[in-house]
Amino acid sequence: MRRILFALLLATAAHAESLLVLNKADATLVFVDPATGKITATIPTGEGPHEVAVTADARTAIVANYGTGPNPGTTLSIVDVGARKEKRRFQLPGLLRPHGLHAVGPHVYMTAEGSRVVARYDAASDRIDWISGTGQEVTHMVVARNDERKVYTANIGSDSVTVIDLADAPRRIGLKQIKVGKGPEGIDLSSDEKELWTAHRADGALSIIDTATDVVRTLTTGTKMANRVKFTRDGKRVLISDPPSNEVLVYDAASKELVKKIPTHEMPSGILVAPDSKRAFVACAGAGKIDVIDLSVLTVTSSFATGNQPDGMAWVP
Asked: Is residue 170 scored above 90 in pLDDT?
């Protein structure tokens, strides 16, 4: 009986909710209990891991090993979520500096910043099954529609958003560039996929793109170097991190009005919203901590340490 109970406890622990956090300077992926902030597993990755995504079945986590300044990364870490270990170091086919990731089902869309492309990793077949150039400089972050008919990238060096239309793929792939403000980086789609928001690093503004018409609306935010944009899961609010100001800005998604500026620990960067939209986790790279924002009161209520320069995060249900 004791053995059965122990096995049940292990199975329950293996399937508990986890927050996944990348520590760039440590080159590690840590599993964290989101209720307590306790690290439950630490996994080595490639150099300079920046972003992580989890497939829809929650079995596989993919880490983009961006590399360091002198050494461009060329690999993905393929992590077995249940076993909590790196299964393999996947060598990309001639692609440099993998960065932004976005998972839809078994597919993980990724940018290769050093190669000016978007590619798709298929976890089921363990291969890159599609690559498309953007023709833009510093293609950094990526987001895809749930039906995978369109993919959007923020291109820091070209002041643009690329729209890749896959509705007729592979017979025809559409490519469109939308000019926005200076240095677009953070990017996210609204829950109804009618709007795409991208925050600019260099001009204290953000662009809101109507995804049906590609018409751009610009809002002045006053940010010093906006880093990430994230809608809450209920679609009501948008969170924007501003590392130099040590703040996260909260906007009302409908009215486009600023609701509040939330003070955080040093250099808030990556943002992840819990599935219930009650909490947001903010990776404060300069402090080595994750701040937890209670979204009902818009205040940091707790924080916990994860390692050196935390940034990209993902959720395992």
From this structure: no
- Inside any domain, residue 173: no
- Total count of domains within the chain: 1
**With contact defined as beta carbons under 8 Å apart, do 127 and 119 qualify?**
no
Residue 106 pLDDT level (bands cut at 50, 70, 90): very high
CATH number at residue 282: 2.40.128.630
pTM for this structure? 0.94
pLDDT at 134: 96
Q: How far apart are CA 256 and CA 258, in angstroms?
A: 7
Q: What is the mean pLDDT of residues 263-282?
A: 97
Residue 124: left if φ>0, alpha if ψ -120 to 50, beta else—which one? alpha
- Closest to 139 (Cα-Cα) out of 97, 104, 190: 97
Q: Which domain holds residue 271?
A: 227-317
pLDDT beyond 90 at 11: no
Q: Give per-residue pLDDT as tens, 277-288.
A: 999 999 999 999
Q: DSSP characters for 225-287?
A: S--EEEE-TTSSEEEEEEGGGTEEEEEETTT--EEEEEE-SSSEEEEEE-TTSSEEEEEETTT
Mean pLDDT of 208-227: 98
Most distant CA atoms of the chain, gap in Å: 65
